[in-house]
Amino acid sequence: MKQLSEILKEVAFGSLSSGEAEMVIGWQKGPFWWQSFPAFITDPGGTGSLIWDPFSVSNLSKYLLKEVPEKKIALFLKGCDALGFNQMLRDGRVDREKVLLFGIPCDGLVDPARVEAAGLSKGLLQVKKEQEELIFYYKKGQRKAPARDFYYAKCLSCRYPNPVIYDQMLGEAVPCQPVERFADVSKLETTPLEERFSYWSRHFSRCIRCFACRNVCPACSCRECIFDLAEPRWLGKANELSETQFYHITRAYHVAGRCVDCGECARICPVGIPLAELNRKFIKDINELYGEYDAGADLDKEAPLLTFKTDDPDVSSGS
Amino acid sequence: MPVNLKLQSFEPLIIAFCCNWCSYAGGDLAGTSRMTYPANVRVIRVPCSSRVSSNFILRAFQRGADGVVVAGCHPGDCHYTSGNYFARRRFLLLQRFLEFLGMEPERFQVHWISASEGNRFAAVMTETTDKIRALGPNRKLRDTR
Fold first, then answer.
1. Does any domain span residue A287?
2. Do residue B124 and residue A226 have CB atoms under 8 angstroms apart?
3. pLDDT tens for residues A41-67?
4. Are residues A104 and A225 in the same domain?
5. A–B: how many Cβ contacts below 8 A?
6. Summary mean pLDDT of chain A
7. A289-304 pLDDT, tens per residue?
């Protein structure tokens, strides 16, 4: 991975100094071992601070919406980010000609919570990945552990570790060994109704409505969002469970058929609501009812909610 | 009415979104033909079943509806050719999603009722009202203020 980090700096330097791009969006180390923040670099001299490490989890393509569209921007995409980028492309929110994409094959990223749970976080200075192993550096000495034990759950079920869209691929394709991703949804589906309701109410009642799940989502890219509208004010501002339920139902429903299952919503949630399960319920149902569909994977395939078949399963409840 | 009496005789509130071209006319036919159906149903006329947004349904539950019915033309008969086909996909997903969140599936229903089916309109509304009356008042998704 160290090698890839060097390549990343080189291509960033190259594209800025040749004028191919006016800005590079990459990752930069924060003050703590678990922080890899998005970095916006316009000066070729600044590319030395760019990194690629096991914590480079944020999807950089969403930042394209905030930058001036006239600029030519270079950015790095992991497999999941590439799906998100494709979905934004499909939604007409980015201009393919204005971006330079560097693809990064990624077999998984490290969840700081798992490092902490394993009791390895105390006095930890840095984490590096070598082959299949993580090396934890402390003031005195270091420890090694298999990397896959520390990956985000979303990475363990990842089916697109290699970017599906790029101008230049950095590094070699990695193998893909996803675990079943609908296990949690299927389990919830079989629990009794009331239990399910209290399960979700418990989670939703923790929501602080920071809208991070919306802001981070590559499918949530409307210029004017229903949750921001003052007139009509669909989402009230009161701290009231029904408003929170309204928010979460609507958020998940609005990205149905466009959610690329990158799991960023659940990852970013500060109160740990399993938001990805809501999206996965829709993905599972769409797959079952209207045929397998992976949003962002194939731009030529028709989106399930923008089309229909005359012999679709019926919604009418008898009589 | 004393509080305890009100509790004893629970009457559900049902919001029915009816498409202008079929179901609303079906309801009209039920009325002009002097068929009876429960007064618990409040009809809201919409241009097409696909006009009904999830916002409408959720807001109805928030503001005290015990059940929501969306009624449109039979698939294939849409005034706008294909509106109800899109609605069929959307509402099936929404129905399954609400059930996933713990909502009783009977509380949100979709029915296809044509303009000539006044008797069907009355039958559907009667049956829905009975089902929801049996379920009792809806507390889920409801605004507590």
1. yes
2. no
3. 999 999 999 999 999 999 999 999 887
4. no
5. 114
6. 93
7. 999 999 999 989 999 9
Test mutation, B81, B101, B130, chain A, max A CBs within 10 A: B101
| The token pair that represents A172 in the structure block | 């070699």
Whether residues A247 and A114 share a domain: the answer is no
Pick from B54, B48, B55: nearest CA to B83 = B48
Residue A200 near chain B (CB below 8 Å): yes
- Give yes or no: residues A273 and A189 share one domain: yes
- Contact indicator for B101, B17 with CB cutoff of 8 Å: no
Q: What is the mean pLDDT of residues B1-8?
A: 56
Q: Do A317 and B127 touch (CB under 8 A)?
A: no
For A228-243, give the DSSP string: T-STT--S--S--HHH
Contact in structure between A68 and A42 (CB atoms under 8 Å) = no
Chain B residues near residue A243 by CB distance under 8 angstroms? 62, 143
> Of the candidates A188, A193, A242, which has its C-beta nearest B141's C-beta?
A242
Please answer whether residues A276 and A263 qualify as being in contact, where contact means their C-beta atoms are separated by less than 8 angstroms.
yes
Q: Amino acid identity of A111?
A: D
Residue range A277-281: mean pLDDT, rounded: 96
- B57 pLDDT band, cuts 50/70/90, is very high
pLDDT in tens, B60-115: 999 999 999 999 999 999 999 999 999 999 999 999 999 999 999 999 999 999 99
A282/B93 touch (CB, cutoff 8 Å), yes or no: yes
Domain assignment present for A145: no
Type of residue numbered A215:
N
Can you state the angle between helices B83-100 and A241-254, rounded to 10 degrees? 130
Q: Are residues A162 and A216 in the same domain?
A: no
Q: Is B125 a domain residue? A: yes
Classify residue B116 as exposed, middle or buried by CB count within 10 Å of its CB (0-12, 13-18, 19+): exposed
Quick check: B30 and B118 in contact, CB under 8 A?
A: yes
Instruction: Give one word for A181, left, alpha or beta, with left for phi > 0 and alpha for psi -120 to 50.
Output: alpha
Contact list, A314 vs chain B (CB under 8 Å):
75, 88, 92
